[in-house]
Amino acid sequence: MIDLNDASNDEERLALSIFQAMDRGTLMEELRELCTEDFVWANSGLPTLAGLDAVFDLMSRGGFRNEIPILETQTHFSADLLHIASTGNVVFTERIDHHWDADGRDLMTPHICGIIEIRGSQIARLHDFYDTICYQQTPTEIQPEYTLAAHRERQQRD
Prior knowledge:
Order of helices and strands: HHEEHEEEEEH
Number of domains: 1
Number of helices: 4
Largest sheet: 7 strands, mixed
Radius of gyration: 15 Å
Oligomer: single chain
Structural class: alpha+beta
Number of strands: 7
Helix content: 25-40%
């Protein structure tokens, strides 16, 4: 789970905010506030999204699950921040991202190094680098006691 208190400056807090919005499931509602209109989102092995309209278009068609079949049943996302550093308007993160389904299976867990570029008070570029072998990963087992509601409740408490 992303904690904005791990940031040491405004740029790092803003960079972490996009992952926190993904974690809360509110990215689409927060995207225009967080990112520039010409925001660029690049992921290893996937087409680069240039502009917010491209991001909204992809998300309206089912998001990255259209590009990565293992994500077909994804219902939510979380990330574990391992390291964060910044210089000027560039923030570097090392994370482990989790792509969950409704049964609590972790479908895909890429270990990611990401670069976030800030322009003004918004994110202009997010570029994540990882080994695309994760696209063929075997999901974890179903967690019988897991519910998305309990997951969201824990997020709000923490």
